[in-house]
Amino acid sequence: VAAVAPADAGAEPDAGKGAAPAAVPSRDAVEPVLVYEGRRFSGKSCDFEDLADRFAHVHFGGALSIAFSVCYDTLQKWSHIVDFGDGPERGNIFIGNVKNTGTLAFHIWARDWEVKLHVPDMFVPGETKRYLCTVGPSGRMRAYQDGRLVGENRRGAPPTPGPRRWPWGPRS
Q1: What is the SS3 assignment for the chain?
Q2: 72 within domain boundaries
Q3: pLDDT greater than 90 at residue 117
Q4: pLDDT, tens digit, for every residue of 92-106?
Q5: Which of 46, 71, 97, 113 sits at 20 to 30 Å (Cα–Cα) from 169?
């Protein structure tokens, strides 16, 4: 299951300079703007689900949180768990694995600038884990695995506001 929530849904509590929580911050529940029940996929480039018709009303921009569970059978090259885009280098938001490794990749294009958070050894074939990737209004990007903070980029950027023409479910 993947869920995308707006603005302050688990994003960036900013508990002071240098402070980082050890676990997902406790917040009031926020209704997701997009919920996708997920499916089994091969990781091949043609294996994705185009979600544009179901989620045409969704506009991304500013702070957001994306939660999902995943279990890889094998690690394919750059398999995207979430891929919301407008074409190469244009407002894209994607989460997946780096090359054919277990490194989590969380990338955001903010106008013409790509920001990244890579966290090694997050995906192990055969293991199911829950993840939460957030970006706050100042651009701080965080990744959590099973409720534990596993990575942070304090110099990220929130996504460029607007709809995404190609909101895809699992793809490579």
Answers
A1: CEEEEECCCCCCCCCCCCCCCCECCCCCCCCCCEEECCCCCCCCCCCCCECCCCCCCCEECCCEEEEEEECCCCCCCCCEEEEEECCCCCCCEEEEECCCCCCEEEEEEECCEEEEEEECCCCCCCCCEEEEEEECCCCCEEEEECCEEEEEECCCCCCCCEECCEEECCEC
A2: yes
A3: yes
A4: 888 999 999 999 999
A5: 113
Global confidence as pTM: 0.71
Task: Report yes or no on 6 lying in a domain.
Answer: yes
149 located within any domain? no
- Check if the beta carbon of residue 172 is closer than 8 Å to that of residue 99: no
Position 147 in a domain: no
- Retrieve residue 167's tokens: 């909101």
- What is the extent of the structural domain holding 109? 1-11+43-132+158-172
Q: Each residue of 75-85: pLDDT tens digit? A: 888 887 887 77
Using one digit for the tens of pLDDT, what is the confidence trace for 37-52? 655 554 555 555 555 5
